[in-house]
Every structure is written in C-alpha cells, then in structure tokens.
Here is the input.
Amino acid sequence: MPRRLRRTLAVTACLLPLVTGTAFADFRLCNNTGSRVGVAIGYKDKDGWVTEGWWNISARSCETLLQGPLVARYYYIYAVDYDRGGEWSGQAFMCSREKEFTIRGTDNCLARGYDRTGFFEVDTGEQRSWTVQLTDSAETAPERPLAPLAPTVRMAPGQREPATPLPTAPPAPSAGGASE
Here is the structure.
C-alpha cells in the first residue's frame, strides 16, 4: 500500500468518531479474568444515591456500564466471579439484590428487603470517562490506561479498599444494616 494512502486512512479512522458524533465519555468495566463475572454499580446522580445491577460480563471482555459523560467523581463497584467464586468488594455499603435491580438510596437496605453489600470505591478524579479492570489475584501486570481519558483501577477478588465513607453521602450507608 502506498505510504500516502496509509496516512490518509489513519487520519480518517481517527476523525470518524468526531464526524459520527460518537462520545468517548463512558464508565466501562473490563473483565480481564478467565471467568464470567456479575457486576453492580453505585453512584450519586441529581436525585441521590442509586445502585444498579447486574451486568454479566464474559471472560476477557469489556462492557459499558454507564453511557455518556460521568455525572459524579466517585463510583462504587461490586462484582462476583460466577465460575470460580470470590468477589471484588469494599467498605462502602449499599443496597443490592440477587436479581436485576435499580435501587434508590443506601440506607435501611435490610429493612427495605434488599441485601447490604460492600462496594469498592473508584475515584475518577472528575474525568469524563473511566475504565475499571477486574483481574485475577495472580495477575500482576502494572496499572495503565486503556486509552486517553480512560484511567484504570485494578482490583483482585477479595481485595479490600480502606474503609471509606461515601463522599457527600446522607448519613453513613451503614445506618440500615448490621455493623461490621
């Protein structure tokens, strides 16, 4: 292929998203394990705290959990390994359930008929896009962004984040359930 033509194709490929109006602002999660995983997300929108689940993500694949520019700095993830067991969890307690869900609020989970689940915190630094990568605990590859404006957080199953209250949260999310 002539050199001039190759450069033209490369520029066209880079400009195509601008022409089609495709936004690169999303919250994505990549499953870099050999297992299928189930993922739930928690975040604060204009109406308050919300948790949503489940995304079933195949081994070695990625999924967009939220489309468009991010509306918050902090997001919370909980994931389970369907094939080998284990979970990615943390100390930010939010409501969830076993079936597909969208739940408003983080308080009184058990009293409202939901599970009280520990999510790990992801600080996006107020970026417009973010990608979280779930890895096996045996994987030790260094953290690195997948693309510009797509920083990475790596969590291994069972890895715990330090106890972190939800930022600008209503009374602590732990108010509705048993203490840890």
